[in-house]
Structures are given as structure tokens and as C-alpha cells.
Amino acid sequence: MIKKDNFWIDDNKNKWDCDLYNKYDAVNYSKTLANCRGCSNCSNCSNCRCCRDCSNCIDCRCCRCCRDCSNCIDCRCCRDCIGCSDFSENPQRYVTKKIGSCTSQTTIYWIDDNIHVACGCFIGTLIEFQNRVRKTYPDESNEYRLQYEKEIKIMKYLIGGGE
């Protein structure tokens, strides 16, 4: 386990934030990962690649903040993810292209007025998401804010909420 750029990094390039984990914790979490590569702050996962803040996941790729997922790829096929299971029927879904500072996709699920946005570790309503984007990127000309706001506008149109 080495310390580099404020992360504890194991031999498989899995890493744990030094502000959140001490070396002892990072070593112990590293032991819980089986065949994972490039994951961040994860535990009890196997065969995952580039996941973040996940636990108990299997064969996932690029997931964030997931729990007990299986065979996920960019969160398109997730099961039992936080915030994704309270629809009584299969919701409509819109997935953005890879955008933002993490270069990842944002997904919105909706049936009528029941709307959820999942973006990184954020899960909430479309209005909450828009407020989070504006708080995170207060500069109106910020590249990432413009990317998110463009997608929010598309989402509102698709849902029928207008501007």
C-alpha cells in the first residue's frame, strides 16, 4: 500500500481517500476486493473496474455509490441500487452521454410525476439536481455546468415539464 496524491493505493490500483481512510483501513478494505482494478473507496466487491464508493458489487464497471449490484456496466443494468427500486412499473429512462467532471452518464427515471435523477452519488428530483449543479458550478460559463444544464433542458422537454 502506497500513499500518492492523497490516496492509499494498492497493487491493483484500487484507492482510498486519505481524508476518509487511514492506512490500516485501506489495507483491510483492499483485502475485501477480489480481482478489482482501479476502484475508489470500495469494499467487499469482486471483478469490478473503476467503481466508486461501492460495496458488495460483482462484475460491475464504472458504478458509483451502488450497493449489492451484479453485472452492471455504466449503471445501465443495475439491480438493487439506492434510489432505483421504488417504481411500481418499469419507468421511462433517459441516459445522457458521458458529461461532467467525472465524464460519466446521468440517468433520469420517470413515470408521470415520479422522477428520479441518478448522477454519481447524487440521487434526487430534477429540481434538486439542477440546484446541486448550480451550487457545485456557480460560474454560469463553467463547461460542466453548461453540459449538465443542456441535459436538464432535454430532460424537462422529454418529461413534458417544459422550461
Task: List the topology elements.
Elements lengths: L1 E3 L2 E3 L5 E3 L5 H10 L59 E4 L11 E5 L2 E6 L2 E3 L1 H11 L6 H17 L4
Antiparallel strand pairs: 1-2, 2-3, 4-5, 5-6, 6-7
Helix pairs in contact: 2-3
Short summary of the structure?
The protein has 163 residues and is an alpha+beta fold.
Explain the overall architecture.
It is a single chain. The protein has 163 residues and is an alpha+beta fold. The chain folds into 2 domains: 1-82, no CATH class; 92-159, no CATH class. 23% of the residues lie in helices and 17% in strands. The chain has helices at residues 23-32, 126-136, 143-159; strands at 2-4, 7-9, 15-17, 92-95, 107-111, 114-119, 122-124. A hairpin with a 5-residue loop joins strand 2 and strand 3. Helix 2 packs antiparallel against helix 3. Mean pLDDT is 79; it is low at 73-80 and 82-86.
